[in-house]
Amino acid sequence: MNIYFAPLEGITGYIYRNAYSDIICRDRGKELISKFFSPFISPGVNQRLSRKELRDILPENNRGIRLIPQLLGCRGEDILLGIEDIKALGYTEVNLNLGCPSGTVVAKKKGAGLLAYTDALDEFLYKIYEKADIKVSVKTRIGKNSPEEFFEILDIYNKYPMEELIIHPRIQTDFYKNKPDMEMFQYAVSHSKNRLCYNGDITSAEEYSQIIEKYGNGENYDSLGKNENKKSCDCEGGDKSFTDAVMIGRGFLKNPMLIHKISGYIENGKNKNEGEGAYGNSYINDNVSTETQDIDTIKEFHGRLLEEYKKEMSGERPVLFKMKELWAYMGDMFPGSGKLLKKLRKAVSLKEYKMLAEEIINTGYTKSINSERLPCSKTSLDT
Q: Measured in whole angstroms, how far is the alpha carbon of residue 279 from the centre of its chain?
């Protein structure tokens, strides 16, 4: 099972990706994350991509990681021009964003907004797949207003030879509320002609395990969870497809160390014991990393981000804004640090910010680690 890092506009740019790969993935190998996806680039009408738009995906800014540039649009012609510019940088794959739920994006019939116009969606994809000489994957929601829209949407997707279809089983109007619609994801598993990737609400190793146990093909996982026995994508439906990958975004932002917990789960999975769930009656966090190592890693990761943003930005104010934005997610790692987090969000200088951030990491993470020791027994997904 491949693990992908989902994009989040304004946060997971090349500085964040490089820090994550170099520091969080360092001890267990950078290949822990099979692919990073860039925040979307939205080409203008009949325009080539500018150097500024390409900067985040320049190869020299993404050394040592496998990056998939993501494009957002509603006109196939514009996407094809963007693909030409991306291919010129040496990339062999792009991803189409048909899942962004943002109101400003949807109003332009882009992202998940295009899903409401199935004729336009079909024409959009036809133009791209007819002429693109590069691998093209799609990241999608299951509809705009109703899950039932997905039946027609998947019929359209099945017309095209996608590198893979990444499904976030929510509708646009859900944004990030409500639960993923696992019945519709199961429908995709049974009827998709393209290789699938699951995306949505994976915030623990246990949730990861539920997905691969129920929807993965379940055979030949190596120590990194990579599937070495991929099936063909020329199925005609009827439970012949499977989930080849899992994409995680907010889960990694909320707890960067989640990849260590998933890695530990996968390694424990090599020794299955009958009657104890699919991966034995072991603990998800066992033999992953000690509390001290976790704290030191988070400190180094946080420090790297801070220093790189200081180099990239002019003045303290934009750096403070960027770092505070991270804590909107990462604050979940530190239960009991609510008062300190409030002070951090109000910090007006980097000196004050650094003092508060260090205190939060030193005092809050141990409690977080101890509260997350969940037994890795097999459980069922809500469907």
A: 24
Q: How confident is the model at residue 220 (pLDDT cuts 50, 70, 90)?
A: very low
Strands 35-37 and 2-5: parallel
CA distance 364 to 329: 15
**pLDDT tens for residues 233-257?**
443 443 445 688 999 999 999 999 9
Q: Which CATH entry fits the domain spanning 2-268: 3.50.50.60, 3.40.50.80, 3.20.20.70, 3.40.630.30?
A: 3.20.20.70
Nearest to 57 by CA among 98, 12, 97, 4: 12
3-state class (DSSP) for residue 280: coil
Among candidate residues 133, 105, 109, the one with its CA nearest the CA of residue 119 = 109
- Residue 297 pLDDT more than 60? yes
Measure the CA–CA gap between 247 and 5, rounded to whole angstroms. 6
Instruction: State which amino acid sits at residue 229.
Output: N
Please indicate, yes or no, whether the overall pTM of this predicted structure exceeds 0.90: no
CA distance 172 to 104: 12
- Phi, psi (degrees; rounded to nearest 5) at 98: -120, 30
SS3 assignment, position 22: helix
Residue at token pair 């997971």? 12
CB 196 within 8 A of CB 243: yes
Q: In the chain, at which residue ranges do the beta strands (DSSP E only) sit? A: 2-5, 35-37, 67-68, 70-71, 93-98, 135-143, 165-171, 196-199, 243-248
- Supply φ then ψ for residue 4, to 5 degrees: -110, 150
The residue whose two tokens read 């792009």 is 94
Backbone angles phi, psi at 275, to 5 degrees: 85, 0
Q: Is the dihedral of CA 205, 176, 107, 161 positive or negative?
A: positive
